[in-house]
Amino acid sequence: MQESVVDILKKVGAIIADSHFVGTSGRHLKDYINKDLLYLHPVEAAKIGKIFAGKFKNKKIDMVVAPAIGGTILSQWTAYYLSKLKKREVLSTYTEKDKGTTSSASESNQIFRRGYDKYIKGKKVLVLEDLTTTGISVKKVVEVVRKAGGEVVGVCVMVNRDPKLVNEKTIGAPFSSLDVYVTESYEEKDCLLCKNNVPINTSVGHGKQFLADKAKKS
Question: Among residues 14, 87, 127, 174, which one has the fewest Cβ atoms lying within 10 Å of its Cβ?
């Protein structure tokens, strides 16, 4: 029986529950998925790439695109297994945050560098992402793929943390996820964890930076 994505993440210790985290999006979370721990384990990361590939084996796909950094690893493994399944080469590339824009996912743009955009035109593209809370980053990848002349045939994320907020309608393209792990998530101004004085976790996520930025403003 195939392991679920959440089972794989639990196995490598990537799911941390019942604390107070700040995510890439800036939202505050009760539970956190430390995807970086997955990438320490190439065999487990490869399993997830294989699950992605199996899900899309019957779709016409020429290229897999994901946002750097973590998505790049999944893009590579997924393209590798799609190439084996389809018995032809499926390319893999990635987008990066636009230099000069803020590090916040909600404000920074995704762009192609290194001339990769010229390989997108006319291609049928599968867009991947590891985790989504707001879906902003992956939506920006969809936009930049279309701008480069690619056709987005599907968008799939490893784990969707908020299906009500992140779905086909909000992403603007055919959307699915390999697994779902719903966790409480708040804008800073509405954060119940803040209101209950639960200390912010600074060991993972963006909590340390959040507190540093807050200290500068005060």
Answer: 87
Strand order in the sheet with 21-22: 21-22, 28-29, 185-186
The edge-to-edge listing of strands for the beta sheet with 91-97 is 110-111, 91-97, 63-67, 124-132, 151-160, 175-180
Listed by start position, the domains of the chain span 5-201
165, exposed or middle or buried, with CB in 10 Å at 0-12, 13-18, 19+?
middle
For the chain, the maximum distance between any two Cα atoms, rounded to a whole number of angstroms, is 59
* pLDDT per residue as tens digits for the range 23-70: 887 889 999 999 999 999 999 999 999 999 999 999 999 999 999 888
In the chain, the amino acid numbered 201 is N
Q: ∠ CA(158), CA(106), CA(114), 5° rounding?
A: 75
| CA 125 and chain centroid, separation | 16
What CATH number is given for 5-201 in this structure? 3.40.50.2020
| Amino acid letter, 110 | Q
